[in-house]
Amino acid sequence: MGKSLLASLPVPVKLGVPVAAGLLAAACGSAAGSTAGPAPAHGGTAGGTSNASATGTVIAAHAGSAGAFLTTASGRTVYLWTADGMNRSNCSGACSGAWPAVLAHGKLTAAGGAKAADLGTITRSDGTKQVTYDGHPLYTFAGDSGPGQTSGQGNDGFGAKWWLVAPAGTKITATDTAASAPASLAPASGGSSAGGSWG
Fold first, then answer.
1. Euclidean distance between CA atoms 150 and 181, whole angstroms
2. Distance, CA of 51 to CA of 103 (rounded, Å)
3. Which tops the pLDDT comparison, 58 or 180?
4. What is d(CA 51, CA 74) in angstroms, rounded to the nearest whole number?
5. Which domain holds residue 163?
6. Who has greater pLDDT, 51 or 139?
7. Which of 42, 135, 157, 193 would bridge 86 by S-S if both were Cys, CB 3.0 to 4.6 A apart?
């Protein structure tokens, strides 16, 4: 029993052990240097909402009880803010946390009744490109947790009204009553919840 386990193994096995160990170490080293998967496709930032599809940003129109209104490709309702100027956003800081800018990525596309000729972009102070429609900078509302929810409609947070955007580029001031938004989606102080949901 004085023989070691290694001494009792045949020569091909003795030579294979270091080779296998080297291959295993090389494989572990290259795996540590790689990423776990592709980068997220959304490309969004803390201050904005991305609506990128595989080819770019899509703005669509969906029917609501107050009329057709604009949404992102994922169905998130978009709003205009009456405090903004034509092709100028005045929403930054805490405002952009509650009302993230709709950011442009790739080609801008209109769908479902939205007009491609009305799509544009502006450059925000942080260098990102915000989507505009008929000159209105577009936003989503942090209080809308799903497609088609309109709980930001009529909100007067940050000193001015937030309205749905019609495919014609005008504000929709009527209440969207397709369905009641859950009570937990009521806007933060300074606003009123007049919205609903179609989805």
1. 8
2. 7
3. 58
4. 7
5. 48-185
6. 139
7. 135
Domain tally for the chain?
A: 1
The C-alpha atoms of residue 171 and residue 162 are separated, in whole angstroms, by 9
Bridge-based pairing of strands 119-123 and 129-133 is antiparallel
List the beta strands (DSSP E) in the chain.
48-50, 56-62, 69-72, 79-81, 101-103, 107-111, 119-123, 129-133, 136-137, 162-165, 171-172
| Position 198 in a domain | no
The pLDDT value recorded for residue 53 is 52
- The encoded tokens of residue 150 equal 């309109």
Domain membership flag for residue 95: yes
- 134 domain residue, yes or no: yes
**Which of the residue ranges 13-17, 111-115, 160-164 would you say has the lowest mean pLDDT?**
13-17
Q: Which amino acid is at 57?
A: T
Considering the domain boundaries, does residue 24 fall inside one? no
Rounded average pLDDT over 48-68: 79
What is the four-CA torsion angle of 171, 175, 178, 183, rounded to 10 degrees?
120
d(CA 153, CA 24): 59
- Count of other CB atoms within 10 angstroms of residue 9: 13
Written as six digits, the tokens of 98 are 């509650």
